[in-house]
Design a protein that fits this description.
single chain, 6 helices
Length: 130
């Protein structure tokens, strides 16, 4: 039951972020609640180190705080999945596809992309074992 709820919520969050460029706090809280029912974390030290580095990177790159909260929820509960090379390579591919699609659609180089799909699609593929 929990995986289906996660799939539905992730789909909703991705579509909402693609349309409005916003990750709502309620969605992040529901997502964290669902993830707490199925924790898959690695060592606490690596998750904390990744959290500190992520906070600095998100602030430095001016990535939205909703995306940061989403990322921290993933790190806190699913660090074994999201700190893997497979996750990072899939995230880079998704980000590249979103940048290319955004560039072709708007034909400008300095536009924002929805970052929640970059985090959630690779996570969902690894969570479901795809």
């Amino acid at each position: 039951m929990v995986p289906w709820c996660i799939v539905i919520l992730v789909s909703h969050m991705c579509i909402y972020d693609l349309r409005f460029f916003k990750v709502r706090n309620l969605d992040s809280a529901l997502f964290l609640g669902l993830l707490l029912l199925d924790v898959n974390s690695s060592s606490l030290q690596s998750a904390l180190l990744a959290s500190v580095i992520s906070i600095c990177a998100f602030i430095g790159l001016k990535i939205g705080m909703g995306d940061l909260k989403l990322w921290l929820a993933l790190l806190a509960t699913q660090s074994a999945l999201v700190l893997s090379v497979v996750f990072l390579s899939r995230a880079v591919v998704i980000a590249g596809l979103l940048v290319a699609a955004n560039y072709l659609r708007i034909a400008r180089k300095c536009t924002s992309i929805a970052f929640a799909p970059v985090l959630l699609i690779p996570f969902l593929s690894l969570y479901l074992g795809i």
